[in-house]
Amino acid sequence: MTKGMSYEEFKSSLRDSAARKQVLRSRGRPFHVLLSQQFGRSDIESLCDTATAIRRLDRHREGRGFLRGVLSGQRIMHLFSQPSTRTAQSFLAAADKLGANSRTVTDLSTSSFAKGESVEDAVRTLSSFFDAIVVRHHEDEFATRAAWALLRSHRPIPVISAGSGRSQHVTQSLLDVYTLRYSFAERGGIDGKTVLIIGDISRNRAARSLAYLMTKFDQPRVYFVSPREFVPERDLVQYIEKHGIEVRIHETIESMLREHGRQIDAIYVTRLQQEWDTGGAPTELGSSDPYILKTQYRELIRPDCVVMHPLPRVNELPDQWEEHPGFVVWRQVRNGMWIRAAIFAMVHGADEEIRARARRLELIP
Ligand code: ASP
Ligand code: CP
What we know:
Number of domains: 2
Shape: globular
Bound molecules: aspartic acid, phosphoric acid mono(formamide)ester
Mean pLDDT: 96
CATH class of the largest domain: Alpha Beta
Low-confidence stretches: none
CATH topology of the largest domain: Rossmann fold
Order of helices and strands: HHEEHHEHEHEHEHEHEHEHEEHH
Strand content: 5-15%
Distance between the termini: 41 Å
Radius of gyration: 20 Å
């Protein structure tokens, strides 16, 4: 059934949770990793547990040796057509930790895309040599199209989106949730927490993926601060509200924090996505005054409020915030490697084995 699907049918199946399972899961676990919506609560919990198991095994002599064998002999293609520091390097480091071999292509003009090759032919070719493809691309649907092409092929291999145009950055939101879970470990977890997301939401894939992923938790609240022209689009707001989650949108950080600052449990600051501006490259990069998290706002929030940023940052999160007790941005970066290693393990069906070994070595409960 899935093999004969047209691309339009494949895309429309992604909008429905039962149909999505058919096309994105295999053997009861996530296979292609494209969207936050595709993850259930139990997927998220076991992914986070696997990440913790990997983190602890990596510090243990026997554990480290064991990890290197988990994906030994597997080959991973990292296709990055847009700039990346953290995502690309953390995927590569994650593959190294599990003993997989990696190859990277960053300049697509050196591949046969430059000769007009279709996405479908290109990824089917890559699937002859690799066991998974990690892809960051400026087109919203490149990874989706690649996943569809591979489902129709004789050698389906997982496609993992590492940032899809303006639409989603699913592995970023998984590492964000892993970081939130750690931060709230002593405070009842993510359920019931209020998360404020700041940025030009309608074109910010990290912000959007996190907002979608928050719907997997019980009764959180999702607040946004966004310039009027980039407010979260109706689809996103409706999706969140459909899950019974309270949404609030303000136009400035100051008005949001003056009204709700003490109630907010985590602030997720993001960079203005000026690379998408039309009319030429902006002359000056950075956020304008209402979207900078000024240090004086510390008095409007609780000391235990978690402060996050997917990075890179420009001026929107001043360095002085590093002194705030809830600042976890560098932990987020490091968690990117652990969660991406857990994603590789999950799609290759090696995650249970990893958790079992960590349990046997008494590294996780
Ligand atoms: N690095 C993240 C992304 O690629 C966030 C950003 O660039 O602002 O989406
Ligand atoms: N957070 C993030 O995706 O960073 P890079 O763009 O550097 O990969």
